[in-house]
């Protein structure tokens, strides 16, 4: 396993990270991207929108799209696109600042619960193992360990860029591209042979 | 200059540069207008003075000759003509450039042109224009005796007496003496105060106005006496011909000894010069304020948060039931609503804020193209959100440029066609339903239908032998690269940049319509939805979800007959409204809503491009003021909505895009029929 810290798309994976839970998994995003954490608010459905961004929320007077990472990461989502009802008490919305189509944008991301802002030591960040993960590898920037659990660091820039390019999320199941380990797929490179 | 001073300086000068341009352009149409001439002079003088005050001697120096030229005009010794206006406009641009970047080049050429125009050799810089057009001094009039004292707080307020003295020296002042009799004894001396007065002798040929203008910035609290010496040595305290002090209005009417002075339209009553020139907006305390746009955006965001906080408060108060709390809450609700309305109205800008640039463009094109073009603007008061107005400038400039270059004929061609030699480009703006229509029409030769068709066919934009309607054909001139080649000269320019127009208007979710009649002219109409702006919305409910319809698109609301409550087997759904058949669409289907509709569904009849269409909804909630928020790029693929808004209770509601919705409903109906 390589020891170096993957830092693709300019993500500084060595900095403070926010850990949160989604569909039973622990995920983390750079704290620098986090603007605030909201308790669940009324979500407005956008008829005709892809499931990945099927809702809108009001964040301090701005209309912000609400993204469901379970769709591109192909996690089970019991209650449709909205905040899972069973996790409603702990459910939160992470308000992130991300570049979309070259413009700084604000996006809400659903979480079943938010844990803490923590620093994942560089050694704790590992590149994606070749086997044993069911996420589309190109959407995973790195894996880490936190409080005895695996932490997935989703590659948000890649996920949103793909979506905007019409590759992902437009269908309810994101394309098979993630599975096929195309040689060109960024994350797949070093591990392509291991999978065959 | 520190940042704060610089900001003040910029705000002041930018306003002046703008009014100067407006006045110069107006002056071109009415060169005799005394108020305008005075206004131009005042702008020039104030610009010069402001420049000097803030240490920008480059600006002050550059403007000196222009000021002098207009002073001559003002005194009636010279006239305004087209070249003078043209040179002055260039000067104005140069000042704008100097404000942008110190040391911007090009000033000397302009000064040289001015000098040439005035019949003087370039190089006669120093005050050459001062004697320009000055009436010869009346026989027997002696040199001026000027005594003045600036207000004591001049230095504190940043005034510079040395600049006043320097200006007087430029006028040819001699025998400059300081009067020290008001200087207090040392223990009482406040070094920050100005105690000195001055006595100055000025040449007889200098006009009284020229002298008084030196004190333009020191009118408050100025003590000044000015008299002719009559050849004889002046008395110690000369009987003033005009004495000026703020407390006592200047006695008008020269004494017998006085020389008749050149008569400007508004004799500068020095006691209250600001009111005397009421015609000059720049001289009045301005009713307008320049505010950075970001601050307005910030304010809008705060108001949005305030509305949300208010909604929460209302909720809590309703539960508590405390009467005094209820009363306060009602006050806060009322204030918040007013605050919201005011903030929104601040963001609205009339089209007139950009038409000045078009006037200027047409003026420049007139001389460049050798055509005679008049620019007329109608409905300039039509308001749009400032963002939309700003984004419209570029496309409208393109269209005007094309109309002037290719639409309008040469004066000879116009005469041959039996038209007035001066072509007219008209900009008209008006509200129409939920849209703002901005038309640019010219009375030129019109589009060449055949040439466009040939070109479109050659470019593959049109099938061989196709016979498109005018509307469709003319729309092709906005296709990218429609006419990059110059072979069809009449059209060549019409293609250049026109795709930029299309892109911008598309970005604003607008549409472009072109009409043209051979020999009569072309009209380009931009239909802009009131996106990015504020609309009166109709709040409706479909399957428990709320949506907003632009109220302006709504014709009428009727009840859906029970017989039609359920989607029937029949593909066609028509309502009989006062003997006319109106097709209708069920929003429950279009919006993929779940559940079954209750009784008493309503039909909102809207006007679309294809006529009246009914939209079936569950319930009408009411009308509301709707701030349109753009959807994120993540929802760019969803065309049915023109944006979203935040409702009073903090929830987000989508705004229905009526033309898109109707088009989509039609498409789905067609699909069902085909299946």
UniProtKB/TrEMBL annotation, chain A:
Q: Return the SMART domains for the record.
A: CheW
Q: Which InterPro entries match?
A: CheW (IPR039315), CheW-like_dom_sf (IPR036061), CheW-lke_dom (IPR002545)
Q: Cite the residue spans of the region called Disordered.
A: 170-196
A Pfam family cross-referenced in the UniProt record is CheW
Question: What are the boundaries of the signal sequence?
Answer: none
* Gene3D superfamilies reported in the protein's UniProt record: CheA-289, Domain 4, SH3 Domains
What GO cellular-component annotations does this UniProt entry give?
A: cytosol
Would you say which domain of life the source belongs to?
Answer: Bacteria
Which residue numbers delimit the CheW-like domain? Answer: 14-165
Cite a single GO BP annotation: signal transduction
Q: Which PANTHER family match?
A: CHEMOTAXIS PROTEIN CHEW (PTHR22617:SF23), CHEMOTAXIS SENSOR HISTIDINE KINASE-RELATED (PTHR22617)
Protein name, as recorded: Purine-binding chemotaxis protein CheW
């Amino acid at each position: 396993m390589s020891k170096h810290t993957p830092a693709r798309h300019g993500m500084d994976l060595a900095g403070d990270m926010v850990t949160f839970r989604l569909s039973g998994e622990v995920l983390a995003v750079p704290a620098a991207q986090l603007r605030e954490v909201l308790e669940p608010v009324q979500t407005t459905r956008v008829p005709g929108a892809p499931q990945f961004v099927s809702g809108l929320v009001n964040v301090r007077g701005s209309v912000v799209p609400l993204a469901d990472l379970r769709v591109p990461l192909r996690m089970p989502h019991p209650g449709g696109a909205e905040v899972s009802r069973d996790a409603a008490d702990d459910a939160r919305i992470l308000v992130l600042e991300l570049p979309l189509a070259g413009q700084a944008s604000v996006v809400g991301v659903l979480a079943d619960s938010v844990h803490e802002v923590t620093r994942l030591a560089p050694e704790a960040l590992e590149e994606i193992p070749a086997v044993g993960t069911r996420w589309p590898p190109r959407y995973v920037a790195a894996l880490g360990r936190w409080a005895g659990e695996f932490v997935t660091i989703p590659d948000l820039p890649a996920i949103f860029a793909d979506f905007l390019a019409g590759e992902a999320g437009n269908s309810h199941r994101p394309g098979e591209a993630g599975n096929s380990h195309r040689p060109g797929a960024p994350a797949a490179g070093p591990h392509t042979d291991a999978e065959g | 200059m520190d940042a704060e001073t610089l900001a003040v300086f910029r705000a002041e000068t930018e306003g002046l540069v703008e009014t100067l341009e407006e006045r110069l352009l107006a002056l071109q149409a009415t060169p005799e207008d005394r108020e305008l001439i005075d206004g131009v002079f005042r702008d020039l003088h104030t610009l010069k003075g402001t420049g000097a005050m803030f240490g920008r001697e480059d600006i002050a120096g550059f403007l000196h000759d222009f000021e002098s030229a207009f002073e001559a005009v003002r005194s009636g010794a010279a006239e305004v003509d087209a070249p003078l206006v043209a040179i002055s406009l260039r000067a104005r641009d140069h000042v704008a450039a100097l404000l942008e970047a110190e040391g911007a080049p090009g000033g000397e050429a302009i000064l040289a042109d001015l000098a040439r125009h005035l019949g003087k050799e370039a190089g006669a810089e120093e005050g050459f224009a001062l004697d320009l057009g000055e009436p010869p001094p009346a026989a027997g009039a002696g040199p001026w005796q000027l005594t003045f004292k600036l207000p004591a707080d001049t230095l504190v307020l940043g005034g510079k007496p040395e600049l006043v003295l320097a200006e007087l020296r430029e006028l040819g002042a001699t025998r400059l003496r300081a009067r020290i009799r008001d200087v207090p004894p040392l223990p009482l001396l406040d070094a920050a105060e100005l105690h000195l007065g001055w006595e100055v002798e000025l040449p007889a040929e200098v006009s009284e106005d020229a002298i008084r203008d030196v004190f333009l910035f020191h009118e408050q609290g100025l003590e000044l006496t000015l008299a002719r010496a009559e050849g004889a040595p002046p008395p110690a305290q000369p009987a003033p011909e005009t004495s000026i002090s703020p407390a006592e209005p200047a006695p008008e009417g020269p004494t017998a000894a006085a020389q008749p002075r050149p008569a400007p339209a508004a004799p500068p009553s020095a006691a209250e010069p600001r009111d005397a020139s009421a015609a000059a907006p720049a001289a009045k305390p301005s009713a307008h304020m320049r505010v950075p746009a970001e601050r307005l955006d910030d304010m809008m965001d705060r108001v949005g948060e305030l509305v949300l906080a208010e909604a929460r408060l209302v909720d809590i108060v309703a539960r508590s039931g405390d009467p005094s709390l209820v009363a306060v809450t009602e006050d806060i609700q009322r204030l918040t609503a007013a605050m919201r309305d005011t903030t929104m109205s601040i963001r609205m800008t009339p089209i007139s804020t950009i038409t000045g640039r078009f006037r200027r463009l047409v003026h420049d094109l007139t001389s460049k193209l050798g055509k005679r073009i008049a620019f007329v603007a109608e409905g300039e008061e039509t308001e749009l959100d400032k963002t939309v107005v700003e984004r419209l400038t570029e496309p409208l400039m393109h269209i005007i440029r094309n109309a002037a270059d290719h639409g309008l004929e040469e004066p000879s061609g116009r005469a041959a066609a039996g038209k007035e030699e001066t072509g007219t480009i008209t900009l008209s703006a008006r509200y129409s339903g939920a849209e703002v229509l901005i038309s640019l029409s010219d009375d030129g030769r019109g589009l060449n239908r055949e040439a466009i068709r040939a070109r479109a066919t050659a470019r593959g934009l049109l099938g061989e032998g196709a016979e498109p309607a005018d509307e469709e054909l003319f729309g092709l001139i906005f296709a990218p690269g429609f006419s990059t080649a110059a072979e069809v000269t009449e059209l060549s320019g019409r293609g250049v940049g026109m795709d930029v127009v299309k892109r911008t208007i598309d970005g604003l979710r607008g549409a472009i319509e072109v009409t043209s009649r051979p020999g009569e002219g072309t009209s380009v109409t931009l239909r802009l939805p009131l996106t990015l702006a504020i609309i009166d919305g109709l709040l409706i409910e479909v399957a428990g979800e709320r949506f907003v319809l632009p109220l302006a698109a709504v014709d009428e609301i009727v009840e859906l007959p029970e017989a039609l409550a359920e989607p029937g087997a029949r593909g066609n759904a028509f309502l009989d409204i006062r003997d006319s058949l109106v097709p209708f669409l069920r929003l429950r289907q279009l919006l993929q809503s779940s559940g079954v509709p209750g009784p008493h569904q309503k039909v909102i009849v809207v006007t679309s491009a294809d006529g009246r269409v009914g939209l079936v909804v569950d319930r009408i909630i009411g009308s509301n003021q709707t701030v349109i928020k753009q959807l994120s790029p993540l929802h760019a693929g969803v065309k049915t909505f023109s944006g979203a808004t935040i409702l009073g209770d903090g929830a987000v509601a989508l705004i229905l895009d009526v033309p898109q919705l109707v088009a989509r409903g039609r498409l789905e109906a067609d699909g069902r029929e085909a299946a």
